[in-house]
Each structure stands twice: as structure tokens, then as C-alpha cells.
Design a protein that fits this description.
By secondary structure, this protein is mostly helical. 71% of the residues lie in helices and 3% in strands. The longest helix is centred in the N-terminal third of the chain and has 37 residues, at 15-51.
Length: 537
């Protein structure tokens, strides 16, 4: 690669092989980085028992999700740190640093002692490593997307960058594959004791391979040309966020594109997975297989919608995905219940459950400071059984009164609640012989197609929105706030909303509201970008 501007002439005879090499090298490294990041996400319900105190299962699960969310919350800060370096020093070397930080932190998770061994030191160390992962990922995506986009010809930028968009889903699939293989080959106790560490150790091999490939890449020719002409920004953070109109476009990109894209992404993949396992009581392996199959079937649509965005535009596809998702999430998740655990659905229809109390809390971030009332304990247990219930005002003189059908229980007694549920015909875990696998897979694929609509064109859209001298910084921040904060907080927030309200579907209001806000702002204030020539700015 010469690094000259002529590289981007779409008629250049040597362009296509080089373009493919850039896409392959950037995408492969990013797949492995997403694999590292989503190992924890996939094992979050499992980690609740390893790294947090026993007693309240929903509290432990919320703690695990909070640790999961910590990696997302710090991603915008990684975008600031590494985005600035990328705009000052270069794209290539910045995402070399990020992949080394990510790989090292992931390997270290596999070495951590559990809560049983060192108490609260275990979750503190786990959170610290998640923060390092989040910082690294905050710098990785913007670098890879910018790097590929700056190599792509104007007429094929959506298609080329859509390959980068497949990497998060492929990384998730790889995480499911490795974890599933370990759980299939190991006794459950062996996996719980030490086998869960193997997928984290495996990341060292992926890290070495990724670094080797990326060392062979040259710097982006657009960046090289800009530096040679002396047009680079000396203060990318100031130019990105404190100067008009760029700061306006950063805010609009967040609220009018990436926030909705983030919640649709996490609903269609992670929240669907957690809903299958935690709420519908489907066993881990079957849930992994179903989600993994939907990922394989749906992934080509990232490329399709990236290609389509080169023809008809990026923004209308993204906003259409937000609209369709918001309109259909409730029937789709009801459909999952009907097809995965019909006995649970039937039990809920014939059994009225209510909890009467006034001292219930909304527990989002859970830790040693958290205090759980008897009401919290009852709601926690019912939520963990995948059951909806009605919240009623307290009965005078009673801390909490629970009704399961015709049975009335005072106070919190786990054994009595379980006995009442069993007497009423509570079915427990999903019966795999009753699962409608075809319909379940179809629902999961539909939700994944929503993901591909919002995610396939987003990289090209963000790259085209900002000038070369501050592109890495400017596009990374709204992307990682949209995905890291709005999207990454989804499992935690939705789980807390379900526990507080007693409605297993109530958590869906979170992605629906965010998607609708994005639809309105994007429609009113953002314009199409596909015809912009980024090689001239």
C-alpha cells in the first residue's frame, strides 16, 4: 500500500485486493475483541453465584449485570482517550494498543479468585478488569470503522464498513460456541469449579493472532494525506465537543441514531438470551444453540443492509429498524413465552399472584450497602421463577402479604412460597419436549434482522458525519454512549424494572421508549450522508 490519495480511486486496478485485506484484518481483530468483551456478558447469570454473596438471587444477578454494565459505562471514556490518540497519532497504532489491553484484561478474568475465596475483593477485581475492557473497546470500534471507511471508495462505503458491523455478532457467536463446548464436555460441577476459566484463557491465542495481523497493516491513506498537508487537529477533544457545528452533530448522532441502535442491538441478542434462560427457564445449552443459530442465519443481513445503504441511504434504514422494533417487541416476547414455556404461560393465565406491601425498593446498583425488605425478598423470588404478579398497597399491620391463587401467605418464607406455587401447578423449568423450536428460532431471527437494520449502516453514517481531522474522536463518543450507556444498561435496567413492577415484560418499555425517541429526533434533525466524499475533507 502506498498510502497515497490515488488508492481511493474506484477505478484503480489494485484497489480491490487491498480493500479486502484491510476489511479482513480489521474485522478479524475486532471479532476477537468483541469475543473478549462478551464472554462476561454471556456468563453474567452464572457469575452471580461466583463473585457475589449468596442470599438474594435477583440481587446477585443485578450485581452481576451491574458489573457487566460497568464495562459499557466506561466505554465513552475509552472513546475520548483513544479517539484523541487516533486523531493525533494515527488509526493503526491506536487500535493495536486497544486490542492488547483488551486481551490482557480478559485473560486476567480467568485467573480471578471467587467471592468464596477472598470476599468482596473478588467483585472489586472483576469490576476493575471490566473497566479496562470497556476502555479498550471504547477505542477499538471507532478505530476499526474509521480505518476501513477511509480505505473504502465512496460508492461502496456502506458495504465495506458493514463487515466491521458483523464483528460484534460474530464475537458473541464465538463466545457462545466456546462456552457451549466447555459446558457440553464438562460436568456441571467441574465447569462451576474451574472450567469457566478456559474461555478467558483461550483469548490469549486470539490476542497473539490479532496483533500479528494488525502489525502488517499500513496507516490509513486519508489520515496520512491529511497529516502530510498539515490539516490535522491539534486539539481533537476541543474541536469535537466544544466547537459548533460539530458538537451539535455529536449530540444528534447520539440521540437521533446510536441510542436507538444500541437498545435494539442489546434487546435482540442479550436481553433475548437472558429472557430465555432466566425468565422462561430454558436450559443454558439449548438457549445458546437457539441464539447461536439466529446469529448465523441473521449475520448476512448486516452486509445486505450495508450494501442497501449505499443505494438508498443509511438513515432511513436505521430509523425504520427502530420503528419496527418498537412496534413489535411486546408481541415477539409474548411469542417467546408461548413457544418456549407454554406451561408457564398457562399457569400465569389461570393463577392470580399478588404482593401487598409498601416498603419495596427499586434496586438498580446492588452492593454491600443494599438492604432488602421482606417485600423485596418475595418479589425477588417470584421474579426469579419467571412469574408476573400484581403489586398492591400494604395491608395494615402486615409487612408483606402474598397471594398465590387462593393461598394467602404473610411475611417472607421461601419454603412456603415454593409450596404454594407447587400446589397451584407451577411448572418450573421449560420442558424441552414442548418447545416449538421452529417458531422460537423464527422470532429470534426476526429480532436479529432488526439488529442488522440499525447496526449494518451505522458505521458508514457516523464516519460520513464528521471531518477527517476529528473523525475518530467525534464518531466514537456518540457510538459508545449510545451502545455503552443506553444499550449496555439494558439488561440491568430491564431486570430491575421487572422486579419492581412484577411484570415479566415491563422491561421492554426501556428499549421501546429509547427507540421511539431516536426515531423522532433522527427524522426531524438528521440528514442523509451517503453521498459525502470523505476523501476530500
Amino acid at each position: 500500500m502506498t498510502g497515497t490519495a490515488t488508492t481511493h480511486d474506484k477505478h484503480h486496478p489494485d484497489f480491490k485486493p487491498e480493500e479486502k485485506r484491510v476489511i479482513f484484518a480489521s474485522s478479524l481483530g475486532t471479532v476477537f475483541e468483541w469475543y473478549d468483551f462478551y464472554l462476561y456478558a454471556t456468563l453474567a447469570p452464572f457469575f452471580a453465584a461466583l463473585f457475589f454473596p449468596k442470599g438474594n438471587e435477583t440481587a446477585a444477578l443485578l450485581s452481576a449485570f451491574a458489573t457487566y454494565a460497568a464495562g459499557f459505562l466506561v466505554r465513552p471514556f475509552g472513546a475520548l482517550v483513544f479517539g484523541r490518540i487516533g486523531d493525533l497519532v494515527g488509526r493503526k497504532y491506536t487500535f493495536l494498543i486497544t486490542i492488547i489491553v483488551m486481551g490482557g484484561a480478559t485473560f486476567a478474568v480467568g485467573l480471578l479468585p471467587t467471592y468464596e475465596a477472598i470476599g468482596w475483593g473478588a467483585p472489586i477485581l472483576l469490576v476493575s478488569l471490566r473497566l479496562l475492557q470497556g476502555l479498550a473497546l471504547g477505542g477499538e470500534y471507532g478505530g476499526a470503522a474509521t480505518y476501513v471507511a477511509e480505505h473504502a471508495p465512496n460508492h461502496r462505503r456502506g458495504y465495506d464498513t458493514s463487515w466491521i458491523q458483523t464483528t460484534a455478532t460474530l464475537g458473541f457467536f464465538l463466545a457462545l460456541l466456546v462456552i457451549g463446548a466447555c459446558r457440553l464436555e464438562m460436568d456441571a460441577k467441574v465447569f462451576a469449579d474451574w472450567g469457566w476459566r478456559i474461555p478467558f484463557w483461550f483469548s490469549v491465542i486470539l490476542l497473539a493472532f490479532s496483533v500479528y495481523i494488525r502489525l502488517k497493516l499500513e496507516e490509513s491513506p486519508v489520515f496520512t494525506k491529511m497529516k502530510a498537508e498539515g490539516k490535522g487537529s491539534k486539539a481533537p477533544l476541543t474541536d469535537s465537543f466544544l466547537r459548533y457545528p460539530n458538537n451539535k452533530f455529536v449530540l444528534l448522532a447520539l440521540l437521533g441514531a446510536t441510542a436507538g441502535q444500541g437498545v435494539v442491538w442489546y434487546t435482540g441478542q442479550f436481553y433475548a438470551l437472558f429472557f430465555l434462560i432466566i425468565t422462561l427457564k430454558l436450559d443454558y445449552l439449548t438457549a445458546y444453540i437457539l441464539i447461536g443459530a439466529s446469529l448465523l442465519i441473521g449475520t448476512p443481513f448486516f452486509i445486505f443492509f450495508g450494501w442497501l445503504s449505499d443505494k438508498i441511504g443509511r438513515l432511513k434504514i436505521i430509523l425504520a429498524g427502530c420503528l419496527i422494533a418498537a412496534l413489535t417487541y411486546f408481541p415477539l416476547f409474548h411469542g417467546l413465552t408461548h413457544n418456549v414455556n407454554p406451561a408457564l404461560e398457562e399457569f400465569q393465565q389461570k393463577t392470580q399472584i399478588s404482593v401487598a406491601a409498601n416498603d419495596c425498593g427499586f434496586h438498580l446498583f446492588v452492593g454491600p450497602w443494599s438492604k432488602f425488605t421482606e417485600c423485596d425478598q418475595v418479589k425477588d423470588h417470584l421474579t426469579k421463577q419467571g412469574l408476573s404478579f400484581t403489586s398492591l398497597p400494604a395491608i395494615e399491620g402486615k409487612a408483606v402479604v402474598t397471594k398465590v391463587g387462593e393461598v394467602t401467605l404473610e411475611g417472607w418464607d421461601k419454603a412456603k412460597v415454593e409450596e404454594a406455587l407447587k400446589a397451584a401447578g407451577y411448572p418450573g423449568p421449560a420442558d424441552k419436549s414442548k418447545v416449538n423450536y421452529g417458531m422460537t428460532l423464527l422470532i429470534l431471527v426476526i429480532m436479529l434482522i432488526y439488529v442488522t437494520m440499525v447496526y449494518g449502516p451505522i458505521a458508514a453514517f457516523l464516519v460520513e458525519l464528521f471531518p477527517t481531522r476529528i473523525r475518530y474522536t467525534s464518531m466514537s463518543l456518540p457510538y459508545h454512549i449510545g451502545n455503552g450507556w443506553f444499550g449496555g444498561m439494558l439488561p440491568l435496567t430491564a431486570t430491575a424494572m421487572v422486579a419492581a413492577t412484577g411484570d415479566i415484560y415491563y422491561g421492554l418499555w426501556y428499549p421501546i421508549v429509547v427507540a421511539v425517541v431516536t426515531l423522532v429526533i433522527g427524522t426531524l434533525f438528521l440528514r442523509e450522508t451517503k453521498d459525502r466524499d470523505i476523501h476530500q475533507n
